[in-house]
């Protein structure tokens, strides 16, 4: 079936003349392309169903169309007539024709399938034959390709062999060409060598090459080759002559060597002159060309040194200006701060100049690092040392400059400033570039003459500073004494003036000197062991200074105590003197007592300041010295031992002085007791008056004196020193009171007053915080009861404290009824062991 132009498909099968009953013929083409069973079926049945379809269409479109199909069936207008007619005729008359058509179509489809199966079978056979033929062809092609690959391999091997042969031929040709070139150059060199070896000093007959300014580079290279060859030949001849004797030695190339040396010198001078002219005009290209040629002469060393030597920064006027900038005007005293500023400015100028020269050197010389090395070396070996020689004039240790001219400390400060600033210069120059030059080592070598004996100058400077300070303090003390006048000691003046006292400010100044010295030692000492040794030496100076200063201060304070003691002894009188003499002696004793009290206070102030000074040194050691000594084994421990040893002399002076203080206090206590204690204080008359329960006047005076004088001791002393001093003082007071009371007799009311005095003393010494002293005064209070109780009660009084019976017996003997009550006999019977 085919489509017409109107879009309908035409029948593609043929029929018989009778359209209604002719057989249907199906074509294979009907199944090609986009085959659709629905379309095939429709084409088969459309010719048999058109009349039915038209009748159906007319029935639906007629006058009774409004009576549409009810329940899916088409109804006619006339129910009875039409229904009867329908029952008499068949509903689908084309069914027979369709069945016949379908049977015919099935048969034809079966035939068509058989035809196609036959064609498929024929095609399979044809394909199998073609495939067999194709496989055979491929096998033949594979054999051909394998042969072709073998041919290509043989061809590649041949090409490789030919290439290697060609390369060998090329090498031989290149070698031959090089040999030819070498031979040609050798011929020329021999010709030139013969020219130089013709006659001594004759350079006029040389080839034009050696006089042509445009071929200077070539001439220089050839001259260097000839010179090297001639010198080697002379060396070989010398060895040969020494072996076979001078008789067989032939004429050598000595003339050539001499002429070549002369020519090279002349050529080098010409190039240097051209280099200088170009340098003045700043023609860098010409300078670079000359430098490149000159590099063939001693690797260009002469050109490098010539260039560096002509730099303006090394002119004598410039170096003199350096000294003026740093040191100031001639005759003026330079200060370290001004020198530091001057060096910073000068070294910055040098660094900037070297940096500018580095740009020119890089553009001109083929080996700029070598030139920079020479330039920086010249700076550190010429310009800087000349300045340092004027700046660092090493003073004499035997006759050091006086402090008015700066002393040794000025030299050390200048040395530290110069060293530090020069180190900074070296770092800056290394940053600019200096080739392989050891800038750090070169800089260190500038200061080796100073660093080798630096520590000796440091120690001498510290000693000079100490000596100057002591002279200053003595001068101030003398001036103060002269301005205020000498105060009469008979009026109770202080024997030691305030200017002679130990000053913490002075010790702080010692430490400040030492800190400055330690900072220099750290600057100059790079190795830990060297640093530790220098630090120990410097710190030992501080220990010696502080030890000597505080020891002398304590000794001066002790001298005042000794003088006060001599004053006391001077006015000790016998018993048989006149009343007038006794009054004068009492007045003088009061003055001596005032001097002793003042000396006591002065010594306590000295002890307090001594302790503060030692604490400052210990704190300084812990904060600044320890960390520098710890890296070296044994250094820290040794320094601690030195510190303890240095302070031992001061400790000895302080101990002796404290003993003298106790003696001074006890002497005044004895004087007060002797002057103020009356016999009636402890032996009141039995006149019926109520007993006096107040402390005696002597007790009051003694306690008042002790409270007043020991106030400075409580402030000055601390820790174990304070405890030991107060304990010793309490024991001595206990002993003095016992001896003092042995001079009196006591009645019961006097015993009560004694007990009141003992209580007063006990309350005072309780402030000492000394348990042993408190215990002794408590026992004194117990023993005082022997004056209060009746004689018959004495036997039971010390039952709980048998340890004090011996002292109690001495007290009992002081009772006013000791003899009348016959207490000696009673005590012998009660305490036979104590008789």
From TrEMBL:
Q: Which GO terms describe its cellular component?
A: exocyst
A Pfam family name for this chain? Answer: Sec10_HB
* UniProt cross-references to InterPro entries, sorted A to Z: Sec10-like, Sec10_HB, Sec10_N
Its encoding gene is what?
A: LOC105172674
Q: Which residues form the Exocyst complex component Sec10 N-terminal domain?
A: 96-212
- Biological process terms in GO annotation: exocytosis; Golgi to plasma membrane transport
Q: Boundaries of each Exocyst complex component Sec10-like alpha-helical bundle domain copy?
A: 218-826
Key word Thylakoid present: no
Lineage summary: Eukaryota, Viridiplantae, Streptophyta, Embryophyta, Tracheophyta
Q: Which family does it belong to?
A: Belongs to the SEC10 family.
Domain of life from the UniProt record: Eukaryota
* Spans annotated as Disordered: 1-22, 55-85
- Biased composition range(s): Basic and acidic residues: 1-14
- Alphabetically ordered keywords of this record: Coiled coil, Exocytosis, Transport
Name the UniProt record assigns to this protein = Exocyst complex component SEC10b
């Amino acid at each position: 079936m085919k489509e017409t132009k109107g879009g309908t498909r035409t029948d593609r099968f043929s029929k018989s003349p009778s359209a209604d009953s002719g057989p249907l013929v199906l074509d294979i083409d009907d199944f090609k392309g986009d085959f659709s069973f629905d379309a095939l079926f429709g084409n088969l049945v459309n010719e048999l169903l058109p009349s039915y379809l038209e009748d159906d269409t007319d029935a639906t479109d007629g006058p009774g169309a409004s009576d549409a199909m009810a329940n899916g069936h088409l109804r006619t207008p006339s129910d009875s007539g039409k229904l009867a007619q329908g029952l008499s005729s068949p509903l689908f008359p084309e069914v027979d024709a369709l069945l016949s058509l379908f049977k015919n179509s099935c048969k034809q489809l079966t035939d068509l399938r058989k035809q196609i199966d036959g064609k498929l079978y024929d095609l399979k056979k044809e394909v199998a034959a073609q495939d067999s033929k194709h496989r055979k062809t491929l096998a033949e092609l594979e054999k051909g390709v394998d042969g072709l690959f073998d041919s290509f391999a043989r061809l590649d091997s041949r090409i490789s062999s030919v290439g290697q042969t060609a390369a060998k031929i090329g090498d031989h040709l290149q070698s031959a060409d090089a040999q030819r070139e070498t031979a040609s150059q050798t011929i020329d060199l021999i010709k030139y060598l013969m020219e130089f070896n013709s006659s001594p000093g004759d350079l006029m007959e040389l080839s034009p090459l050696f006089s042509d300014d445009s071929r200077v580079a070539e001439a220089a290279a050839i001259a260097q080759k000839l010179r090297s060859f001639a010198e080697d030949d002379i060396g070989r001849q010398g060895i040969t002559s020494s072996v076979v004797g001078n008789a067989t030695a032939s004429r050598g190339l000595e003339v050539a060597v001499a002429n070549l040396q002369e020519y090279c010198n002349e050529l080098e001078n010409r190039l240097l002159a051209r280099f200088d002219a170009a340098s003045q005009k700043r023609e860098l290209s010409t300078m670079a060309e000359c430098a490149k040629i000159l590099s063939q002469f001693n690797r260009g060393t002469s050109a490098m040194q010539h260039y560096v030597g002509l730099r303006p920064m090394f002119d004598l006027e410039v170096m003199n200006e350096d000294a003026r900038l740093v040191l100031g005007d001639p005759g003026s005293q330079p200060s370290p701060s001004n020198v530091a500023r001057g060096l910073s400015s000068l070294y910055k100028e040098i660094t900037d100049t070297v940096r500018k020269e580095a740009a020119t050197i890089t553009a001109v010389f083929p080996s700029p690092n070598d030139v920079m090395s020479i330039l920086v070396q010249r700076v550190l070996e010429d310009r800087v040392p000349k300045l340092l020689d004027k700046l660092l004039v090493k003073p004499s240790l035997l006759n050091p400059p006086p402090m008015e001219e700066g002393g040794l400390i000025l030299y050390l400060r200048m040395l530290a400033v110069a060293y530090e600033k020069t180190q900074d210069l070296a770092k800056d120059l290394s940053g600019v570039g200096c080739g392989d030059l050891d800038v750090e080592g070169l800089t260190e070598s500038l200061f080796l003459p100073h660093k080798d004996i630096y520590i000796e100058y440091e120690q001498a400077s510290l000693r000079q500073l100490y000596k100057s300070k002591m002279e200053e303090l003595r001068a101030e003390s003398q001036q103060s004494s002269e301005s205020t006048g000498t105060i009469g000691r008979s009026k109770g003046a202080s024997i030691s003036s305030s200017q002679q006292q130990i000053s913490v400010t002075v010790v702080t100044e010692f430490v400040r000197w030492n800190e400055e010295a330690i900072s220099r030692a750290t600057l100059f000492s790079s190795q830990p062991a060297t640093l530790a040794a220098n630090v120990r030496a410097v710190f030992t100076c501080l220990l010696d200074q502080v030890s000597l200063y505080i020891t002398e201060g304590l000794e001066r304070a002790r001298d005042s105590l000794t003088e006060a003691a001599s004053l006391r002894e001077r006015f000790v009188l016998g018993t048989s003197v006149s009343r007038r003499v006794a009054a004068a002696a009492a007045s003088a004793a009061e003055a001596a007592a005032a001097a002793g009290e003042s000396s006591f206070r002065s010594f306590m102030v000295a002890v307090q300041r001594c302790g503060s000074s030692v604490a400052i040194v210990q704190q300084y050691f812990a904060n600044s010295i320890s960390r520098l000594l710890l890296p070296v084994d044994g250094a820290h421990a040794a320094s601690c031992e030195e510190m303890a040893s240095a302070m031992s002399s001061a400790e000895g002076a302080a101990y002796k002085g404290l003993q003298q203080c106790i003696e001074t206090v006890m002497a005044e206590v004895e004087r007060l007791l002797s002057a103020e204690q009356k016999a009636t204080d402890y032996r009141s008359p039995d006149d019926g008056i109520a007993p006096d329960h107040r402390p005696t006047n002597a007790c009051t005076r003694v306690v008042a004196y002790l409270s007043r004088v020991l106030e400075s001791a409580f402030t000055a002393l601390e820790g174990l020193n304070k405890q030991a001093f107060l304990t010793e003082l309490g024991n001595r007071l206990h002993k003095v009171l016992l001896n003092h009371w042995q001079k009196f007799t006591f009645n019961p009311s006097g015993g009560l007053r004694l007990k009141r005095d003992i209580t007063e003393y006990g309350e005072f010494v309780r402030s000492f915080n000394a348990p042993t002293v408190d215990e002794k005064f408590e026992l004194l209070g117990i023993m005082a009861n022997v004056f209060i109780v009746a004689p018959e009660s004495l036997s039971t009084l010390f039952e709980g404290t048998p340890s004090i019976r011996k002292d109690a017996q001495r007290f009992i003997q002081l009772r006013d009824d000791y003899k009348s009550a016959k207490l000696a006999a009673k005590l012998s019977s009660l305490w036979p062991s104590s008789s």
